[in-house]
Design brief:
3 domains; about 70% helix; disordered N terminus
Length: about 475
């Protein structure tokens, strides 16, 4: 509900100046009366003026300290001036200029009535107006002035009409102010509702943004999961393909040496009595060669299968590289001798390498075996090692058939089905190189090929010259 403040309350801050002016006019007027009249002829009116001055000053001080309201200040000022005027100036009615004096006082009281209506309220305005009409009527008849008595009704009617007009104007002003206040309250209420709606909208927007971010996060998570799922599917496809390749190797490459051994054994049993010693030795060499090939293939298949299912763990240790290479060379010296291949090493004495012993031997065995396999008769296999502050690089170099650039890109891929025969017709699966690559990568190293067709091949691998972190 709207609180009706009224004109004097609604414009309180702006009307403070008018209150001070009215009070100061009352003070100045009383001081002038004291100086011009009552000091020459002191009477009881002198004390009334002094009391009026004191009341006006006290009221201004109280209002200045906000101990009284503006309305109370106006009441004190108006009634002090009005009462002082009635009590102090009654004597002038009997003097020579009483007509002029009463008319002048009527105009001044009209000003006070107007101020009372505007700055106090309607009741006090009517009270001052009608009490002054009674005083004026009494003063007119008491003065005995024929002019004032004959025109009393005109002054009475004019002053009454003026008060009624002020009353209507006061009601109009108050109603307008109340309407403005009601409109202001409505606007304030609407602004509060709009503010609340904006706040709710802002909170909703924050929630929407949070949900949007959650959706983005969820979308990114789903996208990552899809990528991971795609990677897993690809790995699964690769695993299935490698499994197929694995069984293909077993079906084909194991069958060939076994069939060869079986066939040679059967023919020797059937024709043993009729065969010469030289032919028997030749067939036995062929059977031994097939047996060695079968053993090498089975060993690589076993190592590869254990690696795929995670059964092989990296256990690095300090290994004497010279002794390890010499151990592997002793295994293949007969094989190299049968092909008249010369094995040469170029190593510094007591070179230490931090690696898994089984993995390192498997890599060296595969690389040296391949180098002999693809070397021409009377060729050379050269093994060297270079050391730096960060890596040890081992190279196995042959003077054999070489590898074409297109073949080099897929040589470590198990899915590559192209098999190159050795210089003596030896078969290979490519599985040894694939195993070598996996073992070198477990050491945080790398393996690469340098080769030209018919000019030989250098297969190199590097291992960090520190103890590697197990994968």
């Amino acid at each position: 509900m709207v609180q009706k403040l009224g004109f004097h309350k609604y414009y309180e801050k702006k009307l403070s100046l008018f209150y001070y002016i009215l009070s100061l006019l009352g003070v100045v007027g009383n001081i002038l009366d004291i100086l011009t009249i009552y000091l020459k002829n002191p009477t009881y009116e002198l004390y009334l003026n002094i009391v009026a001055i004191v009341l006006l000053i006290i009221a201004m001080a109280l209002y200045n300290r906000q101990l009284i309201s503006l309305k109370t200040g106006f009441i004190i000022a108006i009634y002090t001036i009005y009462g002082n005027m009635l009590l102090s100036n009654y004597a002038f009615v009997h003097e020579q200029f009483h007509e002029f004096y009463l008319l002048r006082e009527t105009i001044f009281v009209g000003f006070l009535v107007t101020a009372t209506f505007l700055f106090v309220n309607q009741k006090n305005g009517l009270l001052i107006g009608f009490t002054y009409l009674l005083f004026y009527t009494f003063a007119v008849y008491d003065s005995g002035s024929e002019f004032l008595i004959s025109n009393l009704y005109i002054i009475f009617i004019i002053f009454t009409c003026y008060m009624l007009t002020l009353s209507l104007f006061y009601r109009f002003i108050n109603n307008s102010i109340n309407t403005i206040q009601e409109d202001a309250l409505i606007i304030k209420t609407q602004n509060e509702r709009l503010t609340l709606a904006n706040k709710e909208l802002s909170e909703s927007q924050i929630q929407i943004n949070a949900q949007h971010e959650e959706l983005i996060t969820l979308s990114e998570s789903l996208y990552k999961q899809n990528e991971d799922l795609g990677d897993k599917n690809k790995k699964l496809e690769d695993a299935v393909h490698q499994k197929s390749k694995f069984f293909s190797i077993i079906a084909h490459d194991l069958k060939s040496p076994i069939s060869s051994i079986t066939s040679l054994t059967e023919q020797m049993l059937e024709n043993y009595e009729n065969m010469t010693e030289e032919k028997k030795k030749g067939w036995l060499h062929k059977s031994l060669h097939s047996t060695k090939l079968l053993y090498e293939l089975l060993e690589n298949l076993l190592v590869w299968s254990r690696s795929q299912i995670g059964m092989i763990e990296l256990n690095p240790e300090a290994i004497n590289l010279n002794e390890t290479i010499e151990k592997i060379l002793n295994i293949y010296r007969n094989y190299a001798s049968n092909k008249s291949v010369n094995l040469i090493t170029s190593l510094k004495k007591d070179v230490l390498i931090f690696a898994d012993k089984m993995m390192l031997e498997t890599v060296l065995r595969n690389l040296i075996s391949n180098a002999i396999k693809y070397s021409f008769e009377y060729g050379t296999v050269f093994i060297k090692a270079e050391m730096s502050d960060q890596h040890i690089i081992v190279s196995v170099i042959d003077s054999g058939v070489g590898i074409s650039p297109g073949k080099q890109n897929t040589l470590f891929d198990l899915n590559d089905n192209v098999i190159t025969l050795g210089t003596s017709g030896e078969k290979g699966t490519g599985l040894g190189l694939r195993i070598s690559k996996e073992f070198i990568e477990k050491h945080n190293g790398k393996i690469w090929i340098e080769s030209k067709a018919k000019e030989g091949t250098s297969i190199n691998f590097s291992i960090p010259n520190v103890i590697p972190v197990c994968k």
